Amino acid sequence: MKKAISLLLILVLALALVPAVSAASDEASDAAWALFGLGLFKGSGTLPGGAPDVALDRAPSRSEAVAMLVRLLGKEAEALAGSWTTPFTDLADWAKPYVGYAYVNGLTFGVSWNTFGAARPVGAAEYLTFVLRALGYSSDGDFEWDRAWELSDRLGVTDGRYNENTKAFTRGDLAIVSNRALDVPCKGGETTLLAALGKTRRVFDPQDLSLEDLRGVWIKEGAPKDGETCIAFYDDIMVGAYSVGDAGRDDVGLSVFKVTLSGGEITRLLLRRRTAALDEENGYADTRAVDFDAGEWYVMDVLRIRMPDANTLCYSIGSKNPRDASKWVWTEELSFTRAQGAGLFDRVDALLRQAPERAKAILQGAWYLKTEGTDPEDDAVRIIREYEALVSGDRAELALRRTAVDAKTGAVRSERLSYAVGTLSAADDALVFSGTETSYTGDCDPDVRSFDDRIFDLEFLTQHEAAVHSASPTHGLLADVRAAIA
């Protein structure tokens, strides 16, 4: 039952989709990731999963602007391979080869004899000057550097949005300008800057996608505004997280998978799942997690992946048709965009660290649940399952009984299925139930095993409104098993 419950909850995590919103415009984000795909935009740091933090909402520094100039000139490899001498004392190590190359080749100068002004923000006129130089134009005759937008507007690098009244110029603006400049012919010819760099805009063929293309954090598009859903790729690990907020309840969840990618399809293998749910208003909390050894990984389903561009990830989930194993059933395609941060993941982890002790306290006492259904192999047989559990301090017991009632013959067959007893403790991110479990199968001798599980059936009881919670067991299952063992 553990695996069945886990699969159901993971499917919920995969389909309960809600978004977050980045402050940067779609135009800026698209431009940044287009440049990233061309190797021209490297970000100002690293997000979880290894993707760059493109930081589109802040102003670019002079060092960052010069690095972009060197890349747009196609001289990054030469700059990084060279040994450059400058008088500047305020350069970060990463910036020294870029500024060194630009300084030695007369492309930039300092703000004083020994200061470059490395961290100083760059305005529109200064960066447009860099871009126009990359296109072969000179501020000594082709344009005035402090009115560079006049030429950039005529060339189509810009569209009239920058002028002497422009106060804010962000890394998002830098990305937009740089991306547009790639499709503009260089001075005196018809060769675009993109062609001069020997680059072509990538078409993301699903057959050629790699996990490196997917690396980083992605946010679901077009979902309700009261929560968010993220996925992230860390090498060959895929993480999914969601949150749904409503009326005092805040549900969050985290799923972790080991994945392989081939021909535009990801095969998901379950590695670990963790979820938490907290209801501040009603004092409810639970946490559940499951771990499988490497030998117990199993194929869950397949994700068909495509990327329309470097900023967009689309996938649909495929599962075998239960009525025809030779056919696949595919969900509607979901669309994600690259995220500027991973706050949801941090939030989920924080809630998980709070939840176990609270969940343990709430589970104290006795639980009883009775479910009824039809035997899938014989509609005339009614199957009754009874669960009874008792948590007292650190000790927990759980018993399961199955009864089959045959409507045709009137025969009733009741059998114990399992009994577990052990210690309940709160780990960093989940409840842990450690002890022994006795399983009963037909007339065979009981099978006894030791376990150390991060999910167990007590949590199954808490998910059902029909479960009865009382101070002590009153339904006889635990007493029956104790007597049999004694």
Task: Provide structural commentary.
The chain is elongated, with a radius of gyration of 30 Å. The chain contains 13 helices and 17 strands. It folds into three domains: 2-19 and 205-349, Lipocalin; 27-196, no CATH class; 363-485, no CATH class. The chain has 486 residues and is an alpha+beta fold. It has an eight-stranded antiparallel barrel. Helix 2 crosses helix 8 (171-181), helix 3 (62-72) crosses helix 5 and helix 3 runs parallel beside helix 6. It is 26% helix and 34% strand.
Please write out the topology:
Blueprint: H1 2-15, H2 26-37, H3 62-72, H4 76-81, H5 96-104, H6 124-134, H7 149-155, H8 171-181, H9 193-196, H10 211-214, E1 216-220, E2 227-234, E3 237-246, E4 249-262, E5 265-279, E6 284-291, E7 299-309, E8 312-321, E9 324-330, E10 334-338, H11 343-362, E11 365-375, E12 378-392, E13 395-406, E14 412-426, E15 431-439, E16 447-453, H12 457-462, E17 468-470, H13 477-485
Antiparallel strand pairs: 1-2, 1-10, 2-3, 3-4, 4-5, 5-6, 5-7, 7-8, 8-9, 8-10, 11-12, 11-17, 12-13, 13-14, 14-15, 15-16
Helix pairs in contact: 2-8, 3-5, 3-6, 6-8
Strands of the widest sheet, in order across it, are: 1-2-3-4-5-7-8-10
Q: What percentage of amino acids are in beta strands?
A: 25-35%
Mean pLDDT: 77
Largest sheet: 8 strands, antiparallel, barrel
Could you tell me how far the N terminus lies from the C terminus, measured between alpha carbons in angstroms?
27 Å
Shape: elongated
Work out the helicity level.
Answer: 25-40%
